[in-house]
Design brief:
Layout (H helix, E strand, L loop, with lengths): L1 H24 L4 H29 L1 H21 L3 H30 L3 H29 L1 H22 L15 H5 L2 H17 L5 H10 L8 H25 L2 H14 L2 H7 L8 H36 L5 H29 L1 H24 L7 H9 L2
Amino acid sequence: MVNQFTINLGFYMLMPYLAQHLSGTLGLAGWTVGLVLGVRNLSQQGMFLAGGALADRFGYKPLIVAGLALRTVGFAVLGLVDSVPALLAASAATGLAGALFNPAVRAYVAADAGERRVEAFALFNVFYQAGILLGPLAGLALTWLDFRLTCLAAAAVFAVLSAVQVRSLPHRPAERGGGEPVRWRGLLGNRRFLLFALAMTGSYVLSFQVYLALPLEVRRIGGEAAAPAVAALFVVSGLATVLGQTRLTAWCRRTWPPGRSLTAGLLAMAAAFLPLAAAAAVPPPGPGPARLALALGPPVLAAALLTLGTMLAYPFEMDTVVSLAEGRLVATHYGLYNTVCGIGITLGNLAVGAALDLAPAATWLGLTVLGLAAAAGLAALHRSGRLAPAAPARRAGATVG
């Protein structure tokens, strides 16, 4: 838990301000800035599956430590160089680092929690969001002094975390599953798992709009004067998760089966874009408080509903991945899951970005339809029993990492 909090603290200290540093301080062209940022995302998404397979082969702890150490180097280099090749190499290194430790961290949590995986991942999401909440605040203070100081501070955070993991994170032989090799035909032939990943891809496309469509909408209506208010989107998301995640998950466990919680989460995400569609039908008022309220109100409400949907679904989503993996090669399954969802995010963002330029109202309705389709897919999987593991898989999931 502390590992993931610190990862997000260090990451979000730097990444929200990297584009401004590249375009402002270094004077790079917009396409170059996009290339540097895109290389990081491509490196991470493209290597998730390899990172998960390596974690199952060699153990979770070595991959966690290797990823943290690599990100230490990558963040330090970002603050010390100004040539495009060096920036691209550092950006690729930070992405590869995430691909190494992300599947391993989640598989470690699943192995250590045993039958309490749902509660563990609810708490995991609290620490995760707390890092997102505090990281940009720390980064803002450092960047005001010097962005290079921000990079070095973020690198120091990862360096310290690497040392702490080497010293303190237990490395149990059982977590390696005997160094079991990946059998790709069996992995890719797991139809229940792949169908679940495809259905949940819709949730990732929707939740990612907190970073893409919602900030663009705030600026479209409110102009640059409203740009600082974008921070409210992340504050709402972080605070809601920190304050309510564990209690909401406990209530869901008492009230609903996992498949229904997942479906409810997707329905909440689908509903998030209806206030934006309604606002798009209203002619924007002139400059003043009313325009600022229109620019900020619907996006904040959308962010709150997206957060609610994530809180409903996330612990059960992570638990279902382990169940459908039947307790074997868990990190590899997380890696494949992240790869499928990452491809969906990329394609979805391209479509959303193009649609926003043409028809904002239709974009919001399209996202709602996507959420409803994903919810319908999850409901169908739940009704057919494809989200519930067989008895041997449940026993394996309790004992094998």
